[in-house]
């Protein structure tokens, strides 16, 4: 029997490969070689599955990265470097998933609400890290957006920007960062 997580990971895989219209109980059952009874053991229909899938996406593709970067501790630059490494190293696993979620968000209010929340959380975290560098306060929002838009834009290109090239773009972007102050000096 598959775990709830197995169903959700399979849902993300189907979404990444074939988009939201492919998310059906039949497709999920086929992918896991299980019956509908196994699906209903974990979920109350497709509406419940969708809600859980979106929460899983947010947890695995946003909160997990922020938590891991924060666990690094240290100055903001080190946490940002860790975050970039985590996100870029996961690119094979998440390739196409962001695009599929964003496309789905254009057609579904629940997915749109999730995407707005995830975008706010991600940009907010980047803003907080950028502020930790001690640069001009007026630069925090534009730089947080720049860092985020580089990733989103790189995924939208056909073909997507390769990880090595994306790392070079981020290295260039980080040259714009002021030298970080000790967090004690930030008061």
Structure write-up:
This protein has 187 residues and is mainly alpha-helical. The chain has a domain at 51-178: Tetracycline Repressor, domain 2. The chain is 78% helix and 0% strand. The chain contains 11 helices and no strands.
Note the beta-strand portion.
under 5%
Basic shape: elongated
What structural class do helix, strand and pairing data support?
Answer: mainly alpha
**Mean of residue pLDDT?**
91
Order of helices and strands: HHHHHHHHHHH
Rg computed from alpha carbons, rounded to a whole number of angstroms:
19 Å
Descriptors:
187 residues, Tetracycline Repressor, domain 2, disordered C terminus
Give a short summary of the structure.
The protein is mainly α. It contains 11 helices and no strands.
SSE layout and pairing:
Blueprint: H1 4-18, H2 25-32, H3 36-42, H4 45-72, H5 76-89, H6 91-94, H7 97-105, H8 109-132, H9 137-156, H10 163-174, H11 183-186
Helix pairs in contact: 1-2, 1-4, 1-7, 4-5, 4-8, 5-8, 7-8, 8-9, 9-10
């Amino acid at each position: 029997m598959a775990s709830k997580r197995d169903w959700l990971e399979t849902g993300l895989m189907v979404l990444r490969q074939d988009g939201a219209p492919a998310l059906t109980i039949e497709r999920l059952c086929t992918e896991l070689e299980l019956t509908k009874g196994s699906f209903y053991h974990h979920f109350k229909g497709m509406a419940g599955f969708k809600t859980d899938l979106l929460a899983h996406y947010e947890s695995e593709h946003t909160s997990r990265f922020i938590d891991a970067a924060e666990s690094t501790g240290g100055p903001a630059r080190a946490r940002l470097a860790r975050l970039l490494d985590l996100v870029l190293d996961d690119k094979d696993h998440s390739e196409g998933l962001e695009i599929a979620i964003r496309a789905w968000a254009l057609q579904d209010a629940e997915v749109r609400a999730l995407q707005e929340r995830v975008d706010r959380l991600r940009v907010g975290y980047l803003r907080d890290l950028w502020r930790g560098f001690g640069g001009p306060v007026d630069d925090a929002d534009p730089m947080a957006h720049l860092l985020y838009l580089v990733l989103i834009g790189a995924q939208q290109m056909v073909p997507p920007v390769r990880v090595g090239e994306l790392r070079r773009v981020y290295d260039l972007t980080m040259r714009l960062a002021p030298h970080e102050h000790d967090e004690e000096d930030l008061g």
